[in-house]
C-alpha cells in the first residue's frame, strides 16, 4: 500500500530544504565579500585607479615604482595620476596580467605573492640592506632610522622589479645603508644616497647576468644609476633614488 505523506511532514521538509539553501548562500556570501587578508603587512580593500588618493595609493606606489616610465622620477605621493597608471600597467604586463593601469584584485594578489609579512619583497630582506660596515641600524647622518628604512623599502621594491626584468635571476646587495662612520671608512661621497638609505649597490647573484645587464635594467627603476666606466664603480651597479635623472655607466650604455 502506498502511503501519502502528511501535509505537515511535506511542509517541514520544504522549510528544512529552504533553510539549508539559505545557510549555504550566506556562507558563500560571507566567504567572498571581504577582501582576502594577504599577510601581516598590508591589505587593500578596494580597486584603485587614476584619481584615487590616500594610504592605499601610497602603498601601491612603493611596490610599483620600479615599473615607472624609463627616464622619469617617480614620486611616492599618495596620488594616483598618469605616472602611477603607467607604472601599474607596466607591472601588470610584466607579470602576465590584464594591463589596464587599474589596480584591482588580480594586481593586489600578485603583490601579495611578492611580499613578506614585514612588507619587504620576497627576494630581499632587511639584513641585506642594513649598515654594511657594522650591521644593524646606527643613527643616520640626519633624520631617523624609520626614515632610512622607509627609503630602503622603496629601494628594495625597485630592485625586485630589476630582478624580474632580468628573468628573476638573483641579485646580491653589496652595500645599501651606511652610517657616516661607515661611509667615511669605505670612501663614499660626502653626500652619498647611501647615507639616507636611498641607494643600493648590486652585483649578479649567479652567472646568468652581468653588471651591464643589471645597469640597463636599473634605468627604468632608479633615477640614479652608476656603473662600469664611471669612477669607482667598475665592480658594481649603484642604483639610487633622487630628484633628478642621472645614468652614467660608459662601459655599458
UniProtKB/TrEMBL annotation:
Peptidoglycan binding-like domain: residues covered: 54-110
Cleaved signal peptide residues: 1-33
The keyword Signal belongs to this UniProt entry's keyword annotation: yes
GO molecular function: carboxypeptidase activity
Superkingdom in the source lineage: Bacteria
UniProt keyword list: Carboxypeptidase, Hydrolase, Protease, Signal
Domain Peptidase M15A C-terminal residue range list: 149-238
Keyword Protease: yes
One Pfam family here: Peptidase_M15_3
Record Gene3D superfamilies: 3.30.1380.10, PGBD-like superfamily/PGBD
Protein name from the UniProt record: Zinc D-Ala-D-Ala carboxypeptidase
Amino acid at each position: 500500500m502506498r502511503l501519502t505523506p502528511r501535509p505537515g511532514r511535506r511542509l517541514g521538509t520544504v522549510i528544512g530544504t529552504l533553510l539549508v539553501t539559505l545557510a549555504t548562500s550566506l556562507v558563500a556570501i560571507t566567504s567572498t565579500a571581504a577582501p582576502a587578508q594577504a599577510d601581516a603587512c598590508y591589505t587593500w580593500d578596494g580597486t584603485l585607479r587614476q584619481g584615487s588618493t590616500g594610504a592605499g595609493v601610497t602603498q601601491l606606489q612603493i611596490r610599483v615604482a620600479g615599473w615607472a616610465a624609463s627616464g622619469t622620477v617617480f614620486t611616492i605621493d599618495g596620488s594616483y595620476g598618469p605616472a602611477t597608471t603607467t607604472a601599474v600597467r607596466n607591472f601588470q604586463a610584466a607579470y602576465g596580467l590584464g594591463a589596464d593601469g587599474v589596480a584591482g584584485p588580480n594586481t593586489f594578489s600578485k603583490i601579495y605573492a611578492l611580499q613578506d609579512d614585514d612588507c619587504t619583497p620576497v627576494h630581499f630582506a632587511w639584513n641585506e640592506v642594513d649598515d654594511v660596515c657594522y650591521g644593524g641600524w646606527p643613527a643616520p647622518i640626519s633624520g631617523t632610522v624609520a626614515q632610512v628604512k622607509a627609503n630602503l623599502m622603496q629601494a628594495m621594491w625597485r630592485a625586485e622589479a630589476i630582478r624580474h626584468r632580468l628573468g628573476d635571476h638573483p641579485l646580491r646587495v653589496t652595500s645599501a645603508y651606511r652610517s657616516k662612520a661607515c661611509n667615511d671608512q669605505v670612501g663614499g661621497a660626502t653626500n652619498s644616497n647611501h647615507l639616507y638609505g636611498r641607494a643600493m649597490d648590486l652585483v649578479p647573484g649567479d652567472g646568468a647576468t652581468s653588471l651591464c645587464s643589471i645597469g640597463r635594467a636599473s634605468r627604468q627603476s632608479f633615477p640614479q644609476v652608476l656603473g662600469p666606466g664611471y669612477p669607482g664603480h667598475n665592480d658594481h651597479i649603484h642604483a639610487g633614488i633622487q630628484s633628478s635623472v642621472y645614468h652614467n655607466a660608459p662601459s655599458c650604455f
